[in-house]
Every structure is written in C-alpha cells, then in structure tokens.
Amino acid sequence: MKSIIIYSKQTCPYCDMAKRLLKEKGVTSFQEIRIDLDDTMRDKMIKLTNRITVPQIFIGDIHVGGFDDLSKLNRDGKLDALLQD
After folding, report:
1. What pLDDT is stored for residue 81 in this prediction?
2. DSSP state string for 55-78
3. What domain range includes position 42?
4. Who's near 71: CB < 8 A, 6+ residues apart?
5. CATH number for the domain that contains residue 27
6. What is the structure's pLDDT at 40?
7. Three-state SS annotation for 12-59
8. How far apart are CA 49 and CA 30, in angstroms?
9. Confidence of residue 37 (pLDDT cuts 50, 70, 90)
10. In total, how many domains does the chain have?
11. Inter-axis angle of helices 67-75 and 13-24, to 10 degrees?
12. What is the C-alpha to C-alpha distance for residues 32 and 6, in angstroms, rounded to an integer?
C-alpha cells in the first residue's frame, strides 16, 4: 500500500470517519499530523492544499482532499486502486 498522510485535529468527527474508512479498506498504518498541536504543520497543510479544513488526506503523492472526497472515491470504486502500490 502507498503511504498515507492525514492532517487532522483531535476533535474532528470527519477525521475519525476518514480513518475508519481507511481501516475498513485494509489500511493498517498512516501518518497522522495533528495541526491543533503544531502551528507550523497547520501552515504547511494550508500551503500544500490551499484548504484550511481537516482532514486533508494524501495517498502517495496525490492530495485526495477531505473526508467527502475520500468517501466519493470509495463510492465511485476508485479508492481501492488508488491505495494499491
């Protein structure tokens, strides 16, 4: 599986739903970057994505977007292929 990075906050239900969906897809590990603990990581996330909301999800080098985007990929049958190496 490709490396996965999730920018998140502690009290974010969409972050929790994104992590749960990935686990249901067989993802056993991902890097979680908590932007509520580190302002420099928040600034980096905003610079990378041009978005201020969490979660922001990267699969490999691809910026997927937030939970809604991840969920749409899954509904459209595209998430499994994206997760594969």
Report:
1. 95
2. -EEEETTEEEESHHHHHHHHHTT-
3. 4-83
4. 17, 21
5. 3.40.30.10
6. 98
7. CHHHHHHHHHHHHCCCCCCEEEECCCCHHHHHHHHHHHCCCCCCEEEE
8. 18
9. very high
10. 1
11. 30
12. 5
